[in-house]
Fold this sequence. Notes:
The protein is of the alpha+beta class. It has helices spanning 20-27, 50-61, 91-94, 106-118, 154-164, 187-222, 224-242, 269-278, 283-301, 343-358, 366-373, 378-385, 448-463, 486-491; strands spanning 37-44, 69-74, 77-85, 95-99, 128-136, 140-148, 260-268, 308-316, 329-337, 390-398, 403-404, 407-415, 423-430, 433-441. The strands form 3 sheets. The chain has a 6-stranded mixed beta sheet, sandwiched between helices. A 6-stranded mixed beta sheet has the order 7-14-13-10-8-9, with helices on both faces. Strands 2-3 form a two-stranded antiparallel sheet. It is globular, with a radius of gyration of 26 Å. Mean pLDDT is 80; it is low at 1-14, 208-214, 217-221, 234-239, 317-328 and 483-493.
Amino acid sequence: MPQHRxxxxxxxxxxxxxxxxxTIMWMVEAxxxxxxxxxxVVLLDGAPDWDRLQARVEEVSHHIAxxxxxxxSVPLHPTTLRWVDDPDFDIGYxxxxxxxxxxxxVQQLLxxxxxxxxxxxxxxxxxxxxxxxxxxxxEGAAFVMKAHHVVTDGIGAVQLAAHLFDFEEQPAAASATTxxxxxxxxxxSMLRDVVxxxxxxxxxxxxxxxxxxxxxxxxxxxxxxxxxxxxMSTALSIGRMLAPATTPKSSVMLGRxxxxxxxxxxxPMEALRLAAKAAGGxxxxxxxxxxxxxxxRYHSRxxxxxxxxxxxxxISQRDTGHSEGGNHVTVMRFTLPVAASSAAERIDAMHRAxxxxxxxxxxxxxxxxxxxxxxMPKGVIGAMLKGVDFLAxxxxxxxxxxxxxGQRVQRFFPFGPTAGSAVNITLMSYDxxxxxxxxxxxxxxPDPDVLAECLREGFDEVCSLATPEPQPEPQPKPARKxxxxxxxxxxxx
Length: 493
């Protein structure tokens, strides 16, 4: 159990304020289609003891600041949002327990989870809800974690899981730790804090600018043409990031509504990794290749030809300076080729397309760009998001088994928000399995089972490239020398 209160799950410039990117996610939710709810559906062998689970979550909530804080507006600063302790925090509201009807399986669990996700959050409370769901299959259960994206990104959710879950079936008992005292805030104190925050930000900006202005000027004087090219390259990159592409490229996945459907797909992680290696790519490339192969099949099933689709994909900007948790991603929109003559060609195409995006110069200016977008009408941002065909996110998960109060975790499926797109497809690896959650807009994709089948076929196509790596041949054991007199003993009747 952690020994200190960790602000990491929403680490801001000074640990108190939402970043400009997070502020966008918060503001655009005036349109219910653009809600940023993330879900983690954890399948368990059985239901953990309820009292022990309550005590576990209660203890963790005292040491992960995001679990006991809510978002509020700062007086006289309408676009500045900050975290404050919830004085009326009620663990009974955030941790729940239900039982599914007799005969329910995993799909019935997912149907319940997607309905829960559509409900959004009570903004006057901390932005999370955990539910123990019993009655999944014969003896199984599930732990469903719902949180707003401003609380954490996918990697942060995995780090949160490290506090909630154990890495052995019967770990040593942990004693309760000292619980921090909740801070109290008033309108006057928040106004005073934000003034100090603005001053500190201005001083910090000036310090960094002064530190770089002389080298930049020298570079411009010595290499004026190169400096001009770099400035133009940055401007063009920002232009691509802000391009007002408001119309999906798909002729099939059209229409948007506030209802969606959850489906799950499982792929052996080793097969996906070996397929990527065979084509000279990374696991993320084979992941995108499986998606595009599946979406190509889905369009073909509907009699449509598609050559490219627009994707929105989180690009992690997490580095060693960030504490655990937190939302440290920037979502980039770009097009991906969908038609390919072979799986190897498809993986290579994904690798080249993503490599270009990862080197966009605009990535160094995402907070500034987000601040500019926050000044624009929210409908403009919403229109840009609704022009996306699909979202794809690859979250490095946990490579070893986990337990929740003695019950083994079988699968850990992530479900990201559609955020105006037709479908969100998120991968989280767990114990050698790529657990893929598919959140499909019910208007854009009225036949989610067909989509899931097409995606499984697409990943089968990609994984067909996988060939087992040669294993080193076992070395023969050296012959054991017989002790003196052994031969004579063997011949003795």
